[in-house]
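Continuing the series of single-chain predictions for the mutant panel. This is the parent chain; the variants come on the following pages.
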Amino acid sequence: MLKIIAVLILIISFTLSSVADVIFEMDQKQISPEATHKTKGMVKGNNFKMDFYESGEKLDGAMIYRGDKKEMIMVDHQDKSYVVLDQATMNELVGVMSEAMSQFEESMKDATPEERAMMEKMMKDRMPGMGGDKEAEPVLKKAGTAKLGSYSCTNYDVYRGEEKISQHCVASWSSIEGGDEMQKVMLEMAEFMDQMAKSFSKSKGMMGQQIHFDNNVFAQLRKLNGFPVQTIDYENGTVESESQLVSSKKTSLNASDLEPPAGYTKRDMGSR
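Parent structure:
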């Protein structure tokens, strides 16, 4: 009996020691206008937080993904508030937007083509993500291998149509300290974001037909099969920005480290 208990203690100890939290840091450089930014990430189980720093050191905002609750929290440090986005909130938001779009389309049924075109342009300007034409999905193309610091990585060029919009230098998850933990929660968050996007696609009327979401790096992680230790974004053939993984290490975090700061006010979506 004592031998069985000893074996169980060893198994539990090994299991607990093999599950680690992770902190990582990325630097971003914007070319025009010139600026430097920093992102500090934390991973604890299936919860994930990113703190965003302007000009390198000024804490600007944060994004928290709560995998245990299937929700995303956006933190605004300027007015010390945060909003929570989950599926129920998204469904409510889509309902409000669909109703507003139905009213808009009803009011425009007798408009001339010129008046309708003008109003649709105004709607597009006020609601980023709406467009008359559906954008082509980004396509990944392998572009050889590279060495970035201590990481060996595969280069992927990202094209939208004929235009190259970004390039990723992708290292295997296993080559990054804490990579396995990062992979699990980041892929789960990518799935969460996919579900959010699908909520909008179910909307009725013009909004459901036209609104789209840019495919950011999280949406591409499954195809990349690794983590981009460097990303270069292009606009009109010139470099717009660069980001690079600076450090990553396993550590021990408190659950409160991945929560909005104490004393911050919870706000509804769209409120000020």
